[in-house]
Design goal:
Helix content: 40-55%
Largest sheet: 6 strands, mixed
CATH class of the largest domain: Alpha Beta
Structural class: alpha/beta
Strand order of the largest sheet: 2-3-1-4-5-6
CATH topology of the largest domain: Rossmann fold
Shape: elongated
InterPro entries: P-loop_NTPase
Protein name: G domain-containing protein
Radius of gyration: 28 Å
Strand content: 5-15%
CATH architecture of the largest domain: 3-Layer(aba) Sandwich
Bound molecules: guanosine-5'-diphosphate, magnesium ion
Length: 340
Amino acid sequence: MSLSSVHTCHRGLSQCRIVIVTLSLFRFLSHPYRVLGYCSLFFSVLYFITIEKSNTVHVTSFPPSPVSHLFMSRVRTELLDDIKKYQTLTDDVEEPRILLTGQIKAGKSSFFNSVNSVFKGYPIFQAAACEKETSVTKYCRTYTVTDSKGGKRLPFKFCDIMGLEPYNDTGILVKDIISLISGYIPDNYKGVWETCTKQPSLADKVHCIVYIIDANVASLLVEELKKKFEKIHEEAHRLGIPQVVLLTKVDVACPIVEKNLTKVYESRYIKEKVKQVSEIVGVPVSCVLPVRNYWCETELDMKVDILILKALQTILRQADAFFDEIKQRGTSSKSLCNFM
Ligand SMILES: Nc1nc2c(ncn2[C@@H]2O[C@H](COP(=O)(O)OP(=O)(O)O)[C@@H](O)[C@H]2O)c(=O)[nH]1
Ligand SMILES: [Mg+2]
């Protein structure tokens, strides 16, 4: 029996005793006083119900920390297991290619670092966060993650590219992103993107586009940038590539969430931001995931891990939906151009 049910049982016994005493009194009362007896019975039952109600509140207000810690630990383990067991639905692709795109400093590199940290078991900052992106060289940097230090390679890879900026003089161009998602740009490619013309296979394509948007600037995005998101969304939609948004820096955006990350789904402010970016990018609200990245920590935090893992699980599920659709259509990697 759990601690809370033992507690309720004790209270229940004392309430029963009150009712029994009242009933016995009632038996010995003569007729004229029976009305008074009824009244006392009524009030004791009322008292019983009131105490029962206050009991429930008392029981649920048990110190929550050990319970929630246990619960969170289970959720985290389940998410980790689910991701480790992940296998693509097609033999043509071993590791889904996940593109991280968004404005500079939105948290693209930090998201990869966070995923890497959760699987390594300690914070690790492999991808240079806050890297200066002044170079004009387009570089599709590919990152893989291993399970624990020196462990097995996990079944996904991230493409990290330069930021998508409102104006074309800085940042990656929409046409470059379209070349990348269509499969023309290989992993870690540093050459001239325009000369890449090899016929792409399904494995060369991007299997999920992840827009990384800073929750603090979501409402300040300029029209030019929104139009770029729109163009990428249209093309991705045409190609059937799934799209997900990660709303980063939720800890900075909302003071309630900063104090307690478990409130992230309850925060009205974050809910509003989720709706806002879902409209800007054109993805359903269920595909906008609030995350808090590791960026300066020395130890892992279970609450941060859960948000990161939930985001990754959603990305992989979306990639699966893409593979499933291709399977349903009977499109093989060789005849991919027909699908595109
Ligand atoms: N507080 C907070 N800061 C973050 C978060 N994610 C990223 N950052 C900060 O934002 C800066 C830019 O992140 P970075 O990953 O380099 O962005 P990128 O340019 O999109 O790759 C980092 O130095 C971090 O300080 C987050 O979730 N919360
Ligand atoms: Mg970066």
